[in-house]
Specification:
Blueprint: H1 6-31, H2 33-39, H3 41-55, H4 63-76, H5 87-93, H6 101-119, H7 125-138, H8 145-151, H9 154-157, H10 159-164, H11 167-183, H12 190-202, H13 213-219, H14 227-249
Helix pairs in contact: 1-2, 1-3, 1-4, 2-3, 2-14, 3-4, 4-6, 5-6, 7-8, 7-14, 8-12, 11-12, 13-14
């Protein structure tokens, strides 16, 4: 009689997980080429592993359910499920009237596509316009207070997303931007404006998002211990990242 020992089962589980991760990586590379080229394979692998954990409380475990959840992370930001920008996402994922996990994630996915049609626009034209405004506001080392106040106005930066955000959530996001900027050691109010702009572009927890490892790289750099150099370095990295996204969009 064949006996499968506990160590063998653990090895089998790890091997199966590795195959699953590889399938997801190939899925991202094929269907999210912009994210793949901008973030790289390692960041995408980290995103998948994060997604496996984040999806678990919603009862999502099958391959197709995880595929949809990770796709939503790429569309909306890795922590979309608790993002005040899209409060309906968590409501749909927790829908107690729908016991089927696949039905819940499918409904969330369909709602997201409708949301992106309105907010990002056809062929991402609204999103690309927001990216261009971001770069224009910070271009040519324009990191002065006037430029930052303009950048920190989401109704100007990304009017479609601002209009789609519940009014109560707008104040919550502004407060969150201030807390995150202060925790990162950025000078106020310029740091608040930068972080609020990045929240509207990339999601409310963008500094922790594997898709934006460039943020961590700047903040962890010991040469950026002082607020002003740190702020300038983050602005420069953000402009470089967004310019890359604009180029990928053409």
């Amino acid at each position: 009689m064949l006996v499968i020992r506990e160590q063998q089962m653990e090895a089998f589980s790890k091997a199966a997980l590795g195959v699953f991760e590889q399938h997801l990586l190939e899925h991202i590379q094929e269907f999210f080429p912009r994210h793949w080229r901008q973030s790289g394979a390692e960041s995408m692998r980290n995103l998948i592993r994060l997604g496996l954990g984040l999806a678990q409380p919603y009862g999502l475990s099958s391959q197709r359910e995880i595929f949809l959840y990770v796709s939503l992370m790429l569309y909306l930001g890795s922590y979309f499920d608790t993002d005040p920008l899209v409060p309906w996402a968590e409501e749909l994922l927790l829908d107690r009237d729908e016991p089927d996990p696949f039905a819940r994630i499918s409904a969330t996915y369909d709602c997201t596509l409708d949301y992106l049609d309105d907010v990002a626009g056809e062929d991402d034209r609204h999103l690309m316009s927001a990216y261009r405004r971001f770069v224009a506001a910070l271009g040519d080392d324009r990191f002065d207070l006037a430029a930052m106040m303009e950048l920190g106005n989401p109704a100007w930066l990304f009017p479609e997303r601002y209009s789609a955000t519940p009014s109560g959530a707008r104040d919550k996001l502004a407060d969150q931007a201030g807390r995150l900027a202060a925790a990162a050691g950025l000078p106020a109010p310029r740091g608040n404006s930068l972080y609020l702009a990045l929240i509207y572009l990339f999601g409310h927890r963008f500094p922790e998002d594997p898709q934006h490892a460039w943020v961590t790289a700047v903040l962890d750099n010991r040469n950026n211990d002082e607020p002003d150099p740190r702020f300038r370095s983050l602005c420069e990295a953000a402009v470089q990242h967004v310019r890359g996204l604009i180029e990928e969009g053409h």
